[in-house]
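Progress against Task 2.4 (sequence-to-structure conversion) is shown through the following example record, which the project officer requested during the mid-term review.
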Amino acid sequence: MKINPVAFKIFGLEVRWYGILIALGVFLAILVTESMAKKKSYKNGLYKDIANDASLLAVIIGVLGARLYYVIFEWDYYSQHLDEIFAIRNGGLAIYGGIIAGGLTLYFFSKHKKVNFFSLADCIAPGLALAQSIGRWGNYINGEAHGGVTDVPWAILVDGERVHPTFFYESFVNFLIFLFLYFYLSKKQKFEGQLISFYMIFYGIARFFIEGMRTDSLYIGSFRVSQLVSIGIIIFGLAIRIIAKKRQKNI
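Structure tokens generated for the chain above:
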């Protein structure tokens, strides 16, 4: 079923479903982060207001990072269409750019506020997964982020062809990660950094395989950028897990 990407207009300005879903994802992510911060109240120097401030700042910098990442790897196009660089409403946000920019923001923010980075990242991880799960449906409405031609029963129709709904695969995986982190692991947590490391490892693995199905990947030579970044995210997640567990034992 084809859905009009434009939800409605206000004074002639188009309001797109893509933007609405991203805003909804961000709003719910902030609520989840606040809930997580309450569970960790005053632990490791963390409290609710700092978590809220960090998540809002990470969202703003993350969106800019996601767009910058996409524009850089599609520069051949944008160098000829400079007026479209900031047209985010039309799509073109690379989640890994957002994760990298948001992660760096959290790191420097935690240093500035003198709070435990791992604890702060753990607060944000479940909401991040939920926001990604919701945001992927904006890709569906825009007719992007889908896979190649397939005959699987759950294929979707794009331009007259049945293709893999890779947006749905990623949305589903992220929702499962959210459920696991928020409702289970946060209650069984053994060390600070466990939630963010789990998110990075399992999302990285899932994204690596899902990216291999997509038809709109960004490339460096013959390599898919997101698959290379996925490997880096997995390695970084494993490193966080090792460092965080070691630090916990030394406390």
